[in-house]
């Protein structure tokens, strides 16, 4: 490790520190994970608990990615009537949060989530570098040798590792290493972006009675008897509000109850912009944050139950549903979702359907009347979590190898968590047996996840 030299201070410079060299810190690890969202978190815990020397690099200063900084909620459906599809470390995390009062059915508190995730990382002895962004990948033939990164205070880092996991959401390791990547639908268009925000002081009884009395004003899946208040619609109110302010750009208002009193998270704006063009993305953050105020004012002024509500929090991280997807040994498809496909190397089960957000189409009658069904599950094969170009690069979370439709179903948080824990456990098994990751059987991965989960 090469540390900086401190130049001797002169009298005039007593309050200044001068550096003569840029810091370069070198690491040697068994597994390095880029991205501390729900996928990277699970990968890190699984690898480290299995006994591998594990490093997690995250560009933000806290853990969780969209799960915490994006204010995304709830955990979309990851269970069928007769079975829970994602278990292991994910269930452990939920149980821990429950004990802290941080869970209400399938919704969670994002601040308590941060704390529990941090505690689990500490207990599992994962080394973490926050505020550190990957900048370069060093590769040789079909292997990644090391990656270079830089902290926001200028420290340079070089990490050699036996295995790398791209959990960056944006497929940054795949992209920088030259692995083929996909972006958007067949025309290159991404799913819409959303800035989520939370509102408190909502009167849920008033919301329920409104849903009961005006069912035609809501999507067909909204019911007054729901366990968790989850409401989308308010078509009439929006029509009224738009007469006064035509710049209100949403076509429905959607919120979900959070743990605590009268708290909801709002997932309603669709900003249709490019999710990897940084200048467009920055403009979306600006426009989206300004739009939050309009939507909040609409809710307070027009929606029953929101009369005394107040704006609690705006997500510091813009919600990117889909950006780059890194090509792996298999490309998971929308057809796999529709046909509930099972694979011999299936390592994650999911049941959430294809879900594409765009603000270019208007909500039609069919969409308003749609009620999702959860009869069966599909599987995600290990091959779609392993890079096409590099034998020691895995990809987990929303940037895994998939087509536009396949990603739109598998991107939900529980499925991303499932990918992370499967890969963390799988890499340990491959390294301990000294065989290719691809050769590890799904049952072995499942057993290893169970072994390291503290339930
Ligand atoms: C608006 C919106 C609503 C959603 N609603 C739901 C919902 O209701 N239920 C549900 O289950 N799912 C929902 N999803 C999907 C789900 O939230 C995400 O797909 C999932 O959380 C992605 O997890 P991830 O770990 O793959 O990626 P992310 O959470 O994006 O994490 C990636 C991490 O990598 C870090 N990173 C990126 N680049 C670098 C770099 N160069 N160097 C270092 N670190 C880097 C990022 O800072 C981030 O922390 C929603 C998504 C959006 C956007």
SSE topology sketch:
Blueprint: E1 24-34, H1 38-50, E2 54-57, E3 79-80, E4 83-84, H2 89-99, E5 103-104, E6 107-108, H3 110-123, E7 127-129, E8 132-140, E9 143-151, E10 156-166, H4 172-177, E11 181-183, E12 197-200, H5 204-213, E13 230-233, H6 235-244, E14 253-257, E15 264-266, H7 278-302, E16 310-314, E17 324-326, H8 334-338, E18 346-350, H9 365-368, E19 378-381, E20 393-395, H10 404-410, H11 413-433, H12 442-452
Parallel strand pairs: 1-2, 1-10, 2-7, 10-20
Antiparallel strand pairs: 3-4, 5-6, 8-9, 9-10, 11-17, 12-15, 12-16, 13-14, 14-15, 18-19
Helix pairs in contact: 1-11, 11-12
The chain binds flavin-adenine dinucleotide.
CATH superfamily of the largest domain: FAD/NAD(P)-binding domain
- Name the bound molecules: flavin-adenine dinucleotide
Question: Helical amount among residues, as a percent range?
Answer: 25-40%
Radius of gyration: 23 Å
Please state the structural category: alpha+beta
- The number of distinct β-strands equals 20
Describe the structure.
The protein is α+β, with helices and mostly antiparallel strands. Helix content is 30%, strand content 21%. The chain folds into two domains: 25-187 and 323-452, FAD/NAD(P)-binding domain (3-Layer(bba) Sandwich); 197-314, no CATH class. The protein has twelve helices and 20 strands. The strands form six sheets. Strands 1, 2, 7, 8, 9, 10 and 20 form a seven-stranded mixed β-sheet that branches. Strands 13-14-15-12-16 form a five-stranded antiparallel β-sheet, with helices on one face. The chain is globular.
